[in-house]
Amino acid sequence: MPTLSKKENYLRLLRGEVPEYVPAMMDGSAGFGGARMGPDLGGLMGDWGDDTERKDMFGVPYVREFNANNGPIPKPGEFILEDITKWRDIIKRPAVLDNIDWQYLADTQLPNWDPDTILSGMASVGNGYFQMLVSFMGFDNGLIACFEEPDEVKDLLNFILGLNVELAKNFIYYFKPETGGGGDDIAHERAPFVSLEMFEDIFEPVWRAAIAPYVEAGCLTSHHNCGLFEPFVPHIVDMGYNAWNPAEYMNDLVGIKQRFPKLAICGGFNDDRVCKPEHTEEEIRAYVREVCDMLAPGGGYAFGGYMMGAPGDAVVAERTGWIYDEFEKIRYSYY
Questions:
Q1: Considering the domain boundaries, does residue 239 fall inside one?
Q2: Which of 63, 79, 214, 220 could serve as 14's disulfide partner, Cβ 3.0–4.6 Å?
Q3: Structural contact between residues 304 and 266, judged by C-beta atoms closer than 8 angstroms
Q4: Which residues fall within 8 angstroms of residue 26, CB to CB, at 6 or more apart?
Q5: Is residue 236 part of a domain?
Q6: Which residue, 289, 285, 296, is CA-closest to 321?
Q7: Mind listing the pLDDT tens digit for each residue in 107-145?
Q8: What backbone torsions phi and psi does residue 106 show, to the nearest 5 degrees?
């Protein structure tokens, strides 16, 4: 029987130590941000009630994507910024940031914190820096701006960075988080959206500065990035990140684990292997064992299996149940 709680076991993973048993990405609420603490910034995740559209703090309209578990996406065709050189006229400091009583929030929220969960710092005022750019402009105009007006893009991203660092420093001072997070979905399953040279010029500096307050405070840190992210992995390691999720299958995860043994690989799951009608229960369970056999030995891995689909879909629920039932059967057998 295990002696460590799921939280302590996950923290051992983040510290670069071999855990007592294979963690799951959500153990101790670790996978995507930990316990919900801090100011209400009008986030786009969670329950929207009956709303079909919601705007973020900068005025970008978002809608739900039903078949992606109701995940929010910028409303197609209704971007708020067309000309990057005009961003100062459009993108303003959100008023909500000037009305945060940090001491009150800490005094009222921290007594309700469950110490069995990881207390994690907020990542940003919105999504990642590439994501914010394309949420303002769309992919086409955002990428064109990176080519034609890189200095304007940098100025915009540094404006966002200033807000994020302000939030991070306040959160660290008042809440004393155990972990911190950052992320930026800057890659497709086939390739990154930008070249390595463009990444290093435009995005790497703001990523580094955004996570620095957490690294300097001694927090353990996790980076979120989907898709073929492998070319950028050395950069997040150098920034001080301890973990990467969801570390998808199209990357050389075994090779990355060998090159960067202190970086926890969180995820490693290909839902194409479980989502088709012809996939049987035994095939799905066998795939769970295959993933864990490949990535769990020696530590440095947290399981993150899932099937993406519409909320309430009975097939999704059943197959996710098989995935985690099988994982629970084997997670204690590797160390």
A1: yes
A2: 220
A3: yes
A4: 32
A5: yes
A6: 285
A7: 999 998 888 899 988 757 878 999 999 999 999 999 999
A8: -65, -45
The answer as to whether 335 is a domain residue is no
**Pair of tokens at residue 3:** 């002696």
Strand partners, 97: none
Q: Is residue 1 part of a domain?
A: no
Q: Are 265 and 251 a contacting pair, CB within 8 Å?
A: no
Residue 159 lies in domain: 6-330
Residue 109 to residues 37, 39, 40, 166, 213, Cα–Cα distance (Å): 7, 10, 12, 20, 22
Kind of pairing between the strands at 61-65 and 71-74: antiparallel
Bond before 246 cis per omega within 30 degrees: yes
Q: What is the CATH number of the domain that holds 194?
A: 3.20.20.210
- The tokens describing 16, both together, are 């670069």
If one counts the domains in the chain, the total is 1
Backbone angles phi, psi at 169, to 5 degrees: -65, -40
pLDDT digits (tens, 9 = 90+) for 152-171: 999 999 999 999 999 999 99
Q: Cβ(85)–Cβ(149) under 8 Å?
A: yes
Rounded to two decimals, the pTM is: 0.93
